[in-house]
Write a structure and sequence with these properties.
By secondary structure, this protein is mainly α. The chain has 13 helices and no strands. The chain is globular, with a radius of gyration of 22 Å. The N and C termini lie far apart (64 Å).
Length: 325
């Protein structure tokens, strides 16, 4: 009975995703397409949650359904509301897309079935990570152990990439500025409803940040959730007040500080004749050192992600004023 219900949920979610895709193919209303994109991301988050990938579901809900949708709406303020239908149909582009799709399908043709217990990942990779997590790190959440410790180099690279994306947007668009005429109109009902919601979002972000060792979460998810809370504050109460709470000028410094915290943690390991990002050097007890190292680097990731996402939002939302100057 449970398996049948699970299959029904999976099929329903996939059918809804396909319906959204086909509904948006012929649309020229960019606002409607953006809303469908947000719904698509939210349903994708539910699908990830259904597959027990809670960490990915957090990220998809906050980034895909939340931040990216708001960012696309901000970009729509600078463009026309409808798609320009006068465009050329390129056969070369169609050929390249078809060829790329065929190559991708050929590449995954010999992949094992999803959930196959005989797949290499279940026979070699996963058991080794689970065993090493219990022996060397001793935390319940294996995902956090893999991302922050075993795969620390890769996560450090991802943090640098996020910081670089923020710097690129800053160089292209600037921080923008906000005038009082851009502020939203007073809406007492909306203010009363959103105020406690923002507090809950920020508290949940702290929970996700410091509970990543024991359950789903970590620095990336917490940073995105925190940024979403401030973006919601900006949308409801006005960006002028949001920039008073978190000035745009300090965001690049906070993002750089987050990357610096991660990198310095690795350098400390080198000073104690340990490999880069080997947290066992941070304490006389190697397990305690791993706990401390994961806590510190996750804080750096959270700070970098939060600052970068909020900086990108400020750059887009303040762009309209610069556009008319």
């Amino acid at each position: 009975m449970i398996e049948s219900l699970q299959l029904l949920i999976d099929v329903s979610l996939l059918a809804f995703l396909i319906m959204i895709v086909f509904a948006s193919i012929k649309m020229t209303d960019l606002f409607a397409v953006t809303m469908l994109f947000g719904i698509f991301s939210f349903v994708s988050a539910l699908l990830f949650l259904d597959l027990d990938a809670v960490d990915v579901a957090f990220t998809e809900a906050a980034v895909g359904a939340g931040f990216t949708t708001v960012l696309m709406l901000s970009a729509l303020r600078l463009t026309q509301p409808y798609e320009n239908v006068k465009h050329r149909h390129s056969l070369l582009a169609l050929f390249i897309v078809t060829l790329t799709g065929a190559a991708l399908f050929y590449g995954i043709s010999d992949f094992p079935d999803m959930g196959d217990l005989n797949a290499p990942v279940h026979q070699h990779v996963a058991p080794e990570y689970i065993q090493l997590t219990q022996q060397k790190i001793d935390i319940p959440n294996v995902v956090t152990a893999v991302l922050a410790s075993f795969r620390g180099y890769d996560t450090f690279g991802e943090t640098v990439v996020i910081f670089s994306a923020g710097v690129a947007v800053l160089l292209l668009l600037g921080m923008g500025k906000v005038e009082s005429k851009q502020e939203p109109e007073e809406n007492l009902v909306l203010w009363v409803v959103v105020k406690p919601m923002i507090a809950l979002i920020l508290i949940f972000g702290l929970y996700v940040q410091f509970h990543g060792d024991f359950g789903a979460g970590g620095g990336f998810q917490a940073g995105v959730i925190f940024a979403s809370g401030f973006i919601l504050y900006s949308l409801v109460f006005g960006e002028m007040y949001s920039r008073r709470v978190i000035p745009a000028t300090i965001l690049p410094r906070l993002a750089a500080l987050g990357v610096l915290i991660y990198g310095v943690t690795g350098l400390v390991s080198l000073l104690f004749n340990k490999p880069f990002l080997d947290y066992s050097a941070l304490s006389s007890n190697p397990v305690s050192g791993q706990h401390l190292g994961i806590l510190v680097v996750e804080a750096g990731v959270g700070l970098a992600v939060f600052s970068t996402i909020l900086l990108i939002y400020y750059s887009f939302s303040g762009r309209e004023v610069n556009h008319h100057e």
